[in-house]
Structure formats: C-alpha cells, structure tokens
Amino acid sequence: MLIRGVALLAGCFIAGQLLGETLGRLIHINANVGGVGFAMLLLVFAQNWFEKRDSLHPEMESGILFWSKMYIPVIVAMSATQNVRVALSSGLIALAAGIIPVAICLFLVPSITRISLKTPEEWSI
C-alpha cells in the first residue's frame, strides 16, 4: 500500500509536468509553466477522491504523507536551479507571471475572510 501512495504521487507529478509543458507551449514559452503546482493540485484532488470513497488505506496515506513532507524541499531545490536573470531579461511575461497571481491573492484574502466569517444563511452571491 505504501507503494500505491508513492505511485499516486508519481502519476500526479508526471501529469502535472505534462500539463505545465503543454501550457508553456500554448503560450509560446519554452518552459514548464506551473507543472509542480498542477501536480500538487492533482494530488490533493486524488487524495480527496480516495477519502470520499473510503479507499484510502492507512499505508497508502502514509506513502502520500511521506512524499508530501518531502515536496517542499524538492520544490526549493528545483527553483534554485532556475536562472532568474534570464527570466527577468526575457521580458515582462516573467514579471507578470509573478506579480499578477500575488496581486489577485492579496485582493481576494479580505473577501474570502468575510465570506468565511458569515453563516450560510448570510451568504448572498
């Protein structure tokens, strides 16, 4: 079962990398755009899917949790190999790719906080 958790993570990583490469090619950038982020989202969705169906065995969950703990150091090591100078000199797309998501998150945090403090009866969308 531990192997199944690691296999699930590996499958999510490969799918995320393929999505990142495809997105990079679609927007005409010769780079992987968000592949690791897509992999992490796929892993969260897959784990949630297994939990809803009560088919996430403790051993499988331990395999996922082990690699989840290792994920952050791996991401830091991967990002350390990227050449920031080339990214900044390649144009505004690199700056926009960093600034726009941060701005959106900063803009949405107060809204999400207000929504989370309301009871479901107070929600009006």
UniProtKB/TrEMBL annotation:
Domain of life, source organism: Bacteria
GO cellular component entries: membrane
Pfam families the record matches: MadL (PF03817)
Keyword terms, alphabetized: Membrane, Transmembrane, Transmembrane helix
Coiled coil feature spans: none
InterPro entries, sorted: Maln_transptMadL (IPR004690)
UniProt keyword Cytoplasm present: no
Transmembrane segments: 30-50, 62-80, 86-109
Protein name per UniProt: Malonate transporter subunit MadL
